[in-house]
């Protein structure tokens, strides 16, 4: 492929994310510019050369590049074959300002776990799985904070809807997880965001994810998908068309339902519904 290709969108239901960009550039070179947001850059093929605050850097598949807000940088392909990249732009407050200086000095975070985590974040964003994307983003922030120690405070100091409140000492307890589970059970069609749920329970989002996974056995987004698939199964066996089932169980559309239904049960919703007409024996 010799032409430049760009796909960009804003996942409005994922707090903190201002834009997502997937692009393939062969000819284009970015002039010096700044962003008002933190930028997480993942290079899939090729490499990118760039100057950040007058220092030369390169980005490739082995690292996640963290570009701070307000700092000029440019970008160009490292070879004549161009590059393919995926970018998440995040609100200025996603990391404390103390992290800015570290990111300017060392924007490349060569950590395999972080690369994997950001890749999973993009998969969720691309699929429109808002709660999963929010959960993945919280885990990405956790890992970035661990890799950028001067970003202050530790991994549990993620953004809350009530800034300045210290969060429950010791993290969420079993009762808190039980309440979170009840809220997800009650929100099959319109679940709360992870940010809203954490704020309601007065805990940090990443702490809630870890505590929920420890107590329940799966992360909140996996739990919610399972509950939605269970609800979909019942409706399908009652003869409700798959498109209507998707709308009534919180999936974005029929393809979204199909993808998760197949992953959980190994068959499509249509095949599952048709099985109800087959009598045993």
TrEMBL record:
Domain HTH araC/xylS-type: 174-275
Keywords: DNA-binding, Transcription, Transcription regulation
Stretch list, region Disordered: 150-174
Molecular function terms from GO: DNA-binding transcription factor activity; sequence-specific DNA binding
Gene3D superfamilies per the UniProt record, alphabetical: Homeodomain-like
Xref: InterPro entries: AraC-bd (IPR003313), AraC_XylS_family_regulators (IPR050204), Homeodomain-like_sf (IPR009057), HTH-like (IPR037923), HTH_AraC (IPR018060)
PANTHER family in UniProt: HTH-TYPE TRANSCRIPTIONAL ACTIVATOR RHAS-RELATED, TRANSCRIPTIONAL REGULATORY PROTEIN
Protein name: AraC-like DNA-binding protein
The species this protein was found in: Lapillicoccus jejuensis
